[in-house]
Amino acid sequence: MTKLAQWLWGLALLGSTWAALTMGPTLGLELPLTCREVLWPLPAYLLVTVGCFALGTVGYRVATFNDCEGAALELQTQIQEARADLARKGLRF
Amino acid sequence: MASTEASRSLPKSRRDPEGRALRQDKFSVLLPTYNERENLPLIVWLLVKSFTESVINYEIIIIDDGSPDGTREVAEQLEKIYGSDKILLRPREKKLGLGTAYIHGMKHATGNYIIIMDADLSHHPKFIPEFIRKQKEGNFDIVSGTRYRGNGGVYGWDLKRKIISRGANFITQILLRPGASDLTGSFRLYRKEVLQKLIEKCVSKGYVFQMEMIVRARQLNYTIGEVPISFVDRVYGESKLGGNEIISFLKGLLTLFATT
């Protein structure tokens, strides 16, 4: 099964569960009014939550992305070393 | 040839598993180049230094795609300096894809492990001994360098670039769940036969090629180990990440999403 198919299955399952519960009365399924009031806008809440989670995660990871200053400095000194050594070995740059 | 002979180990050498492993295994570095005249001698010097210090059996295969800047001429000089058993020149006439460069290079590789990396100094050879250690530790089929975990990181990226990188990585992780944190990186160690098999299966180009390699690896149940690396953005020459790259990345991502 492709990743796309897995996603579609997952969404279909969630979606149909939600639809069945919200349309409960027509199917002869009686949920308390408060339950239905919460259930009705649930997909919208879910979407917002997922969005916030995504933004939060990416934001956190950008903020904590390591800046490898040390690695860059080390590389620069090694480049000088390499050039000197290679010139000694007879390399014409 | 040399590697198949070496792998028939003598019984007495079993006493020292570490030393035996080092004697048996050979690591072929594939360096595809295009206009890397400035960087090539430096990366080769760093590779030789790293391999010599860790007493690792190696060879460096330089695949130059007809660079107009004289990369090939510098490579020939390096071959003279370090010897044609260590530096192998396998140039091609014109610029062809990265995948075919690996196929071309592998035909001539005598090592049982292949290391692929960029020749522009963004990947430091000092991490290679860590890759090898990691490979032994878990007997992995692939060891991938990662900028996104542990002490890994980048140098020379502005905020925009970091946001794009982290954002793209996040979306990819959610959609593909690939089992590795750095999909677009190209600093990796492969068992030779694993790389051969993967390249046969991969069709995409550019950033997506590296991503597809990992995704196919997961499909084929290969194991992947990770080593944090610091990625120092191109010292000489220009780094490229434009709108076109982003669009082709997204296309590739969606293709993999729908087909794997």
From TrEMBL, chain A:
The chain crosses the membrane at residues 43-63. Residues 1-19 form the signal peptide. InterPro entries: DPM3. It is found in: Endoplasmic reticulum membrane. Pathway: Protein modification; protein glycosylation. Stabilizer subunit of the dolichol-phosphate mannose (DPM) synthase complex; tethers catalytic subunit to the ER. This is Dolichol-phosphate mannosyltransferase subunit 3. It comes from Trichechus manatus latirostris (Florida manatee). The gene is DPM3.
From TrEMBL, chain B:
One of its GO terms (biological process) is protein O-linked glycosylation via mannose. Its main location: endoplasmic reticulum. Keywords: Endoplasmic reticulum, Glycosyltransferase, Magnesium, Manganese, Metal-binding, Transferase. Its EC number is 2.4.1.83. CDD domains: DPM1_like. InterPro entries: DPM1-like, Glyco_trans_2-like, Nucleotide-diphossugar_trans. GO terms for molecular function: dolichyl-phosphate beta-D-mannosyltransferase activity; metal ion binding. Belongs to the glycosyltransferase 2 family. This is Dolichol-phosphate mannosyltransferase subunit 1. It comes from Trichechus manatus latirostris (Florida manatee).
